[in-house]
Amino acid sequence: MASSLLSLNSTLRDLLDAHLARIAAEEGLDPQTITDAINAGTMVLLGNPAHKGLKPIIVGQPSRIKVNANIGTSPLCNCLNTEERKLKAALEAGADTVMDLSIAGDLDAIRLGMLAASPAPLGTVPMYAVGQQILDADRDIASMKADDLFNEIEKQARQGVDFMTVHCGLSLKGAQYGVEADRVMGVVSRGGSMLSRWMLENQRENPLLEYFDRLIDVCRQYNVTLSLGDGLRPGAGVDAGDAAQWEEVINLGRLAKYALERGVQCMIEGPGHVPMHQVRTQIQGIKRLTNNAPLYVLGPLCCDSAPGYDHIAGAIGGAIGVEAGVDFLCYLTPAEHLTLPDEADVRAGVMASRVAAQVGEVALGTKRAVAREALMNEGRKTLDWDKMRAAALDPEQLDKRREEHKNEEVCAMCGKFCAVKMLRDRKTEQA
């Protein structure tokens, strides 16, 4: 009989033992359901014991759909204090995890600061740190050594990073598919583009794929969850479902199974730009090919022509995706494709994804989502603003919008024309 994941990974087992009762109570799930799902690889426990002050969480249906916020510096916008404020804004808005995607400045200091400030799991893309060192030295990314990447991964694991995006499924063949002329947007993943260049220039296989066992050994020791990245995700709707995308997805499924059998947890990263009518089949296809591992998606964005509103395009795809099987939503903000998000963008992005999660869970009929809807309906029927506030995904927004008329029983849109009050008062008079 094959060994279970928890028997192979003592760090994960100890972490689960310490937090299982709390997590089960918060999620409304039986502890055995969680344990079985983690062993099966359909749920992951995000938590590196080296991350001090961490509150581990689980990802994977039937647990609550989780939302991630991406923050981090860029060469054109690099301010540590700004990133600290964005981290705070993301957590206050209800993000379940945060990813540090910094590519400028003192990356170790930024990462360690985020780890110290965040009780939520923190993710990274180690390839970015390696790329920064090489590109800032005016060298070609093709000069990277495999040891450069694995040493960075091990360092970040020691620092306490909880999950890492690693583009292990991006093969040399996939990179060749990605740059073919019939792919409109080519390779839009930053990490994927760097690895593709390295492979194509050196005519060598992806070191993350070639030396996958080395990666497993590091991640098992620290319980770092592998977020198997979609380096060939479609960057335009017309590229969705092409050979490049599916070649990588097939690889990801095989790698996730291999890692699970060796005691390492995996999530699968999903598509970016996918037309709305293809979202369901995309999600179902990915879940099938990756053994129902937790699926972590960016959007999906259902149209390409809404810069400034990509958080809305992504929320539409995210809601459909959740109902089709998505487990984890990575937010998009109004700044997507344009600039680095500010605090307001971060908050808007988190809330858009939280709305998408609620919409999807209502469609699935999950008890927590349906109960929230019922409480809101009860509050609206009785004009009970306290109940409406308790049910609201963003109670602060409710307070802000209502402030000027907060002493009124009705809202400021209808006033004495309130439909609920008009018929309620008539029934009272007849009684």
Structure described in brief:
The chain is of the alpha/beta class and 431 residues long.
3D structure, described in words:
With 431 residues, this protein is an alpha/beta fold. The chain has 2 domains: 5-365, TIM Barrel; 381-430, no CATH class. It is built from 19 helices and 10 strands. The strands form 2 sheets. Strands 3-4-5-6-7-8-9-10 form an 8-stranded parallel barrel, surrounded by 7 helices. A two-stranded antiparallel ribbon has the order 1-2. The model has no long low-confidence stretch (mean pLDDT 96). It is an enzyme of class 4 (lyase). Its EC number is 4.1.99.17. One of its GO terms (molecular function) is 4 iron, 4 sulfur cluster binding.
**Order of neighbouring strands in the sheet with most strands:** 3-4-5-6-7-8-9-10
CATH fold-level topology of the largest domain = TIM Barrel
Could you name the ranges where pLDDT drops below 50 across 5 or more consecutive residues? none
CATH class of the largest domain: Alpha Beta
Radius of gyration: 23 Å
Domain module tally: 2
| Shape type | globular
Q: What structural category do the secondary elements indicate?
A: alpha/beta
Largest β sheet strand count, sense and barrel closure: 8 strands, parallel, barrel
Report the strand count: 10
Rounded mean pLDDT is 96
Q: Ends: how far apart?
A: 71 Å
CATH superfamily of the largest domain: Radical SAM ThiC family, central domain
Question: How are helices and strands ordered from N to C?
Answer: HHHEEEHEHEHHEHHHHEHEHEHEHHHHH
Question: Which percent band covers the strand fraction?
Answer: 5-15%
Protein name: Phosphomethylpyrimidine synthase
Keywords: 4Fe-4S, Iron, Iron-sulfur, Lyase, Metal-binding, S-adenosyl-L-methionine, Zinc
Cofactor: [4Fe-4S] cluster
GO molecular function: 4 iron, 4 sulfur cluster binding; metal ion binding; phosphomethylpyrimidine synthase activity
